[in-house]
Amino acid sequence: MNNIVYIDSLIPYNYIHKNWGFYLETTDYIKEINFNTAEELFTALSPFGSYKEVLDGYVFRGESSQNYELVPSALRVFNKEHLYNISGFGMPINNQSEWDMWQQRAELYALKKFHDLADSRGINLPDVAIFRDNILSDHLSHTALSSINSWLPEELHEIAALAQHFGIPTRLIDWSLNLYSSLYFATSGVVNKEPNEENDNLVLWALNYREIEFSKETVNKYPFTFITPSYYRNENVLNQKGVLTSWKYPQNLSNSLEFNLINRTPFNELLANFVAASKIDLRRSDNSYTILMYKFTLPTSEAIKLYDILIKMGFGSESVYSGLDGVVKRMNEDANRKKFSDG
Q1: Which of 87, 97, 263, 288 has a C-alpha 20 to 30 A away from that of 31?
Q2: What is the DSSP string of 81-133?
């Protein structure tokens, strides 16, 4: 059976117990659950399984490797130069690329460029007042910048969500309301790699949006929001039942003498640190805990078996991508899938 790790809440997050030989990425409210086989995972996450609770009130994200952290695309180090270049800024000198002031400006101007180019072609876009008011200029006024209170501001959520789904790096993280679509993304990432014997795991994250949304009516307001983009603008997002999260970072756009550094902390660690610092009590009346996040893992050696199960259920690329794009992706993945059998 699967190994369920429980530790006392006094043990620090990401504590390493050398005698046990593995990282404990868990607390009373963030649990890592390790499965050994695809059948175990699929059964446990079924409507009759031991973790059926996640089917109601959670959003999901699948990763093909445990080495991929929950860091927004704009904050991934390997995206740094690309982001600065597409924004039109170019890389700052020396170590200034790690100043959050320049990082936020690069993100902002990348979104403005996306908006302005799309608008020039008459493409239906979300209404963004600060961009619309400066549509004839390559730059934003000081008044426009000073009106932004936190990053990413709410008025940019919709345009950022649209831009992200077309490859523009943002501070948003993609999730899905559909468990099986997220499992597909985790397994397809393995299928599209060369077969190997690496000791790795694919990951399915589950985030408790019901608890987070309920907290808005209490004193325990978490510093991030859920964004459900307008599905009619993007069929892929519609098929994938996409949802995004936006962590509320301090606004560092204006010139500051502090020159704050970029915060690249993964989402799960930000959440754990916030709960600990805010001393939020997530205990229930029966002394169990409300689980804010699950991290379900499965050896990548089981990914092909799980992929085959999902295909039989109708969750292939042709169901999560629209039109002929999804059809061709499925044909390519079927060809890649065959390499694992032949190997």
Answers
A1: 263
A2: HHHHHHHT--PPSTTGGGBHHHHHHHHHHHHHHHHHHHHHTT------HHHHT
* Cα gap 179→191, rounded to integer Å: 19
Distance between CA 61 and CA 204 in Å, rounded? 6
265 exposure class (CB count in 10 Å sphere: 0-12, 13-18, 19+): middle
pLDDT by residue (tens digit) across 52-89? 999 999 999 999 999 999 999 999 999 999 999 999 98
Query: What distances in angstroms separate CA 257 from CA 111, 148, 261, one per listed residue?
Result: 26, 18, 12
CA distances from 167 to 28, 83, 129, 149, 200 (A): 36, 11, 23, 26, 26
Distance, CA of 284 to CA of 75 (rounded, Å): 35
CB 108: neighbour CB atoms within 10 A?
23
Q: Which amino acid is at 50?
A: S
Number of H helices, E strands in the chain: 13, 12
**CA separation, residue 312 to residues 119, 195, 323, 324 (Å):** 41, 22, 20, 20
* Rounded Cα–Cα distance for residues 302 and 305 (Å): 5
> What is Dmax (Cα atoms) for the chain?
63
Distance from C-alpha of 307 to C-alpha of 206, rounded to nearest angstrom:
19
CA 212 – CA 189 distance, rounded (Å): 29
Measured CA to CA, the distance from residue 333 to residue 343 in angstroms comes to: 16
Return the structure tokens found at 118: 């799309």
Give per-residue pLDDT as tens, 281-299. 888 888 888 999 999 999 9
Q: Cα(317)–Cα(340) distance, rounded to whole angstroms?
A: 18
Rounded Cα distance between 8 and 137, Å, is 56
Q: Which residue matches tokens 């919709």? A: 158
In single-letter form, the type of residue at position 163 comes to A
d(CA 314, CA 224): 33
The reply to whether the predicted model has a pTM over 0.70 is yes
